[in-house]
Design goal:
- Chain B: It comes from Planococcus glaciei.
- Chain B: This is Branched-chain amino acid ABC transporter permease.
- Chain B: It is a multi-pass membrane protein.
- The complex is a heterodimer of chains A (336) and B (287).
- With 336 residues, chain A is mostly helical.
- Chain A has one domain: Orthogonal Bundle (ABC transporter involved in vitamin B12 uptake, BtuC), CATH 1.10.3470.
- Chain A is globular and about 55 Å long.
- Chain B has 287 residues and is mainly alpha-helical.
- Chain B has one domain.
- Chain B is 75% helix and 3% strand.
- Chain B is built from eleven helices and two strands.
- In chain B, a hairpin with a 2-residue loop joins β1 and β2.
- Chain B is globular.
- Chain B starts with a helix and ends in an 11-residue tail after the last helix.
- Classes of the chains: A mainly alpha (336), B mainly alpha (287).
- Chains A and B meet through α5, α11 and α13 of A and α4, α9 and α11 of B.
Amino acid sequence: MGKILNQRTVIAVLVIFALVFPLIYADNRYVLHVMTIGFIFAISVYGMNLIAGFTGQLSLAHAGFFAIGAYTLGILTTRNEMNFWLALLLAVLLTSAAGLVLGLIALRTKEHFFAIYTLIVGYLIYLLIDKWDGLTGGVRGLIGIPIPDPIGPLTFESATSMYYLVLAFLLLSIFISVRIVRSLTGRTYIAIRNSEELAQTLGINTRINKLVSFVISVAYAGLAGALYASLTRFIGPDVASTNMVFNFLMYLIVGGIGTLSGPLVGTMLFIWLEQFLRSYQEYHLLIFGPILVLMVIFFPTGIVGGFYKIKAKLQHKKLPKESKYFNPVPEKSTEK
Amino acid sequence: MELFLQQVFNGLTLGSVYTLVAIGLTLVFGILHIPNFAHGALYLIGGYVTLVVMQSTGVHYFIAILASILVVAALGVLMERLVFNPLRNSPPIHDKIAAIGLVLFFEALVQLIWGTEYQRMITPFDNNISIAGVSMTSQRILVIVVAVVTVFLLTLFLKKTMIGASIMAMAQNREGAFLVGINANAVAMMTFAISGALAALAASLASPINLVFPAMGHLVILKAFVVVIIGGMGSIPGAIVAGLLLGMTESMGATYISNDYKDMIAFLLLIVIMTVRPKGLFAKGVY
């Protein structure tokens, strides 16, 4: 049983499922659309996971960067009629550049100050988008963002093709995340999260490492935002709202902050939960809010972290008690 | 000149509200080291309770405020007991997330119970008074007077009573306070109660001017954070100075720069300040 359920098989099964999924629901645009939105949010949540989960800096400006990505693509493709792929690239680059500037300043602050600072920057981005009528269309938003341009014979007119496009980006994002976390750089981030002073003592340049981690996380948000804009074809200032970043945070916490599969698990779970609770849309936070609080108190590592804890207990390998986060290293060593 | 005086007065009103909210926030931060994002939810509920008590029972505005203060103070204590106390030994990221969960919950709850409409709070203080060409409603004067009295009483309480002294002791040195036998739980509960009471008072005072609606806590809490950071986390005099400063800046900015961008002024101010001094203007170093 344990041998069939090893990590590689699970991942393979999931990927195959994701690939076959549109064939099952080929004529159901709604299901595909929800799935695609879920994937896009998951990309963004992976970004958040890198900076908050692994490097330990809670950035609440994430929705702002998501919006910068979305608006860059939207403005470039509608006003300037730029090619989608070029606009996508520029959106990611511009978001990263904005992240670099903010990171340089914001990362001088620590812990609570950083969270508050980024929360306020995020809100400021929202206000700017809302008020800067000339550039962003203000409250009316941007309408008629085109679908991605075809690459050779590949066109992106159907819901299925968009699904595959976003899936490809999601897999790429997860792959990059995994590579980062399992590399020396990833260990460095975890060291910073566990104790910045200790990391410094070990000779780690925490400033540069935090900055790089922040910029990568912001690039994820920019990519997700740009994809979101071309999928929904309409964006308003709401994409930058604090509720958006709180949603990302909720997906991350419930899925498992500081784990590699947590963002995907949390996002897909909530995206579908929200669909099932659609008739109570305004009130679903009545349940989600307390869930968030309870998760943080009782299962701070989320569903995925909890799963690994139980698994470890069954194998009589206790995780170190003082570590409140899930540590991905022991999991890797059991693979051999 | 009259316009200027009018704006000074408006700034004082705004600043008084910010100060009241920010003092609650800064007290909790100074003692428990929690940036309580859920403070805005306390403010929100404070406004609604006052409104509902007045509407349903027809009692005087002041009695409704008193009821609201009691309810929200109790809510603050509950919050401390049920959420922040169990999290006291967790990594700092966790209580922020829990606070965000609380915000989401309370906002949805308020919408469920009282709906999403903007509501007016009618008080006995809506008559106009004119002094030296500056016209003002007596509600605005009330805001300033109550804020001054409250801050004065609170300072007396913190300086002259045993409970107040133990709160200050814990803010200054946690371990030291434990050593001399101060009950940490009691102090934490007390702090949350005061913080909730101040939020309720501020909301009840500001609502007749600003209307009551489910998102009313958003801007106020963000600006209170601005005030707390400018004033130095945990410092009450800092919160007073910074609160008034922010109120003035906003009121002047709205008149002389742009009304559309007035909310941005506060946040830009903070970004500039934190860029230059990452720990705030008057920070003595976090305790």
